[in-house]
Amino acid sequence: MNFSFEQLESFTQKILRKIGCPEKDAATAARVLLSADLRGVDSHGVARLSGYVRLWEANRINPVPNMCIVHETPSTAVVDGDGGLGLVVAPFAMQVAIDKAKIAGTGWVSVKNSNHYGIAGIHAMEALKHDMIGISLTNASPLVSPTFSRERMLGTNPISVAIPANEQPPFVLDMATTTAANGKLEILQRKKQDAPLGWIQDRDGNPTTSPLGVKDGGALLPLGGDREHGSHKGYGLGSVVDIFSAVLSGANYGPWVPPFVAFLEPHPNPVGEGLGHFFGAMRIDAFRPAGEFKKHMDQWIGRFREAEPVEGQKKVLIPGDPERELEAERRQHGIPLLEPVVEDLKSLGDKLGVSWDQND
Amino acid sequence: MNFSFEQLESFTQKILRKIGCPEKDAATAARVLLSADLRGVDSHGVARLSGYVRLWEANRINPVPNMCIVHETPSTAVVDGDGGLGLVVAPFAMQVAIDKAKIAGTGWVSVKNSNHYGIAGIHAMEALKHDMIGISLTNASPLVSPTFSRERMLGTNPISVAIPANEQPPFVLDMATTTAANGKLEILQRKKQDAPLGWIQDRDGNPTTSPLGVKDGGALLPLGGDREHGSHKGYGLGSVVDIFSAVLSGANYGPWVPPFVAFLEPHPNPVGEGLGHFFGAMRIDAFRPAGEFKKHMDQWIGRFREAEPVEGQKKVLIPGDPERELEAERRQHGIPLLEPVVEDLKSLGDKLGVSWDQND
């Protein structure tokens, strides 16, 4: 069943108002959350709304955070999110990075005391409006085992980099540092299909194709899948994301990161506050004139698009292409939601007194 | 056969003096080049010395470059390497990043008109001496095919991030954005052993285990190996390295990057000057007190080291562990060189009038 962006946006805003978010924050958070549905990252969108509400019920979300800069230099800042929704804290912190870049050339902001911030890409893309390169990293619930580890130590810790072009659409990398994101696994679980080897290990640390492996005490694997195929590189990248997001800011890191699901308690002996993010903004003209750069980005993108494909394969894609195409389609034809997601949202609405019906 | 660091350093310096490098530059370049041999990246060390000399013979290296900053803001700069050895240009540019960070909190330097800079990690590690996080990226000769591409479009484009700790040794990630670095392939070629699937494709773009695949018109594969295992992520990361190193600075990018081997001509219609690097330095105390950060890094590293290993597997390693152990061993027992490498160096010495014998 498809639903218009506007209907889902209005519903999400009303729900967030009910848990105490100010009007402006509810609007920001709804826009950020739904960008995932528009761009095809269905696991990170409106399907998670009731998860955020459960965190609020568990007193783990502050709907009226006093977000502030607790330390800064000309090109850096640490932001305390005051336990607010990551969907609100992240746009605040990214704006700090952009404002720093306007003056110092670049801005770099590490964030503590936050929560899940939606998709990484939407925050990095904010920089594009200012002819800047945007960078967005976050740590997340520990579901990933480093190379040789049986234990889960890291989140899917994504990296997003958004780079403006001129005639070409922007380059937008938005990737988990695991072989496959958790959302892809959820799809296989629903379809009762096996996962390829290299995505997950079971509770003993052996490779498995069962998509239930992670739920059953196993773990997602770092990009690379195994040592021979470079999983130590995915593990290294996920670690850098964790350290920049949390050790620099004073948030929880590694296995101490508070889980997104409200039925799992946060660690009894935290090493920091909440979870962490890291944002960067680099003004293009801090390096060379923006027009010149964007002309070369057009040439870069055009040349890669025209790379000779392997016979029988698709065209070579540019990072951001699939998401942009999906967004255009979903803005026009609506966002498809699975029946269980719709039921979950309806009962959430019932509980908080928000009608699901568009015309209410 | 093993050779002492000091013997190889002295020989390398003398060779570089013969091609016209000033004394200070020859010392810097020898130190950077040999750091690869010490840290076990044998493909990038003294074995490449005659390759650099051949580039100089082909008038593609300027031994007396006038390196300079051509554009800057408080936290950024673009450096023109004036065609110098990357082994000399990179330390110059990293120092600019460190100097910027001292004042602005962070420093970010994109470099054009350079050449191969040795291993990425040695430049990132320079920041550690200043209680800073160091970042080092470079583009390189096109040997890598993006996902779905038959054509080679990118280099092995490494990413290095060096992060200081207190009692623990520093965290030093230094990785190619491919499944396996070219050096690993060279080892298999010498041993006449097959490569694992996922490392390379043949000239038609089909997966192959032949380590000769790349020489034979094939390509290295991005980290992930194939689409199902996330090769679009390795391709995306390699692309970011290319764009930060070259599109920001005005160097050649993608398939236009000049090849390291002198027998291949640079592209007849370059899109920029030389090849490009990108360096970053972030002062720890631009975010939080350095002592506090390093205490938490000790805890991060300690916890990951103690992660329960998969039965029958090694301990969980921290990025930088294997290289550091090798360096300690090689400083004590010498650097092993293969017979063909020794022969090559001896004849290089004969040609330029530098004796290989330690006592000369």
Automatic annotation (TrEMBL), chains A, B:
InterPro entries: Mal/L-sulf/L-lact_DH-like_ah, Mal/L-sulf/L-lact_DH-like_NADP, Mal/L-sulfo/L-lacto_DH-like_sf, Malate/L-lactate_DH-like. Coiled coil: none annotated. The keyword Oxidoreductase applies. Pfam families: Ldh_2. Keywords: Oxidoreductase. The keyword Oxidoreductase applies. It comes from the Bacteria. Gene3D superfamilies: 1.10.1530.10, Hypothetical oxidoreductase yiak, domain 2. Belongs to the LDH2/MDH2 oxidoreductase family. This is Ldh family oxidoreductase. It comes from Cyclobacterium jeungdonense.
